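For the sake of transparency, this paper describes our internal protein records without simplification. Because each token names a local backbone shape, the row as a whole describes the fold. One such record is reproduced below, unchanged from the form in which we store it:
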Amino acid sequence: MKPLADEIRPQTLDEVAGQKHLLGEGALLRRLIESGTSANLIFYGPSGTGKTTIANIIAKRTEKALYHLNATTASLQDVKNIIADVDTMLAPNGVLLYLDEIQYFNKKQQQSLLEFMENGKITLIASTTENPYFYIYNALLSRSTVFEFKPLTAEETLPAVERALRIEKDRSSIPFTWEDSVPATIASACGGDVRKAINAVELLYESARPKDGVLYVTSSDALQLSQRSAMRYDREGDDHYDLLSALQKSIRGSDPDAAVYYLGRLLVAGDLLSPCRRLLVIASEDIGLAYPQAIAITKACVDSALQLGLPEARIPLAEAAIMLATAPKSNSAVSAILTAMDDIQRGAMGNIPRHLQNVHADSAGSDPAPKYKYPHNYPNHYVKQRYLPEELGDKHYYEYGENKTEQAAKRYWDLIKGKDV
């Protein structure tokens, strides 16, 4: 019997689930396909989002012979064997090579593809789940057009799931039915991967329990089978950094619910070190001087988490994430140091004032420099003197943040320094 995922595979662009930004009316990829393009393409995106399906549709449109290789197991000799079919009865209109997971081809292998692309013997459609700008050779990128495929929403996946269930029902020799919520449960749990959703339907049918002469599937069965499908996670891939970015931006945006959600996804995937490090960064970068104790509290939570290990580590890390999300925010410290370093890198390297230098005698030389004034010897432990190099003038790097802590410090120093308050 034909696998369900193959039987349900769309045959036209209108049948493809999701990817409206690529395949909707007037979208660039759709226009290229409908024009019968022979352009070299790179499809970038998660598994199960339609990359192989689109390659099949393009092959039919162009009437080219479609050859499918996976770079995890293929060699350059496999490519050469395909080239041998060009201009033969096997490929009278040319070859469309669909190379899956191209990131597993090394630089030399990718370079070798250029020869065949240049002479027009093959049209290449390469797919990758990794960022192509990091993993694909520049010369190959420059001869191709990159299209990014997005994970599908549950709403976009639902019609495919319902169709798969109907197919299983129609070809079953025993009456087959399911709870009303089963399609939505599968669509939500598949993590935007249609292939996983269809495979889940197939496995649910095979594991369905007879009940009064009917094969019956419950939502509990569907959830148990597919509950981990949404956990697409690679510690070296884009999803890893996307989750860390979402965690930091949620805390920066003062949303504790989103913060614990993204923290939870990292922890469920078994990643403990990455969120620990990122929470420490956030404490200084985003909370900073608005709540200076945040870094100490976060450090204590991180130390506890690392000592406890998972699963208990989730508790102190959740405390840190929620504390940081609900704390007042200030990026004044990071803005100050970045601005100062930018000036330095652009050549602002003035001489250190002599009274700040590590000298044993301020009177050395014929033109004695001003003596260093020791602030603790003056009222309020402050005395006015120059600290920045003369060449920098009255440059300001630090601006007090608009929060209670920093504004209190501003009022204090404005009063001490005799400024209007």
The chain has a mean pLDDT of 84.
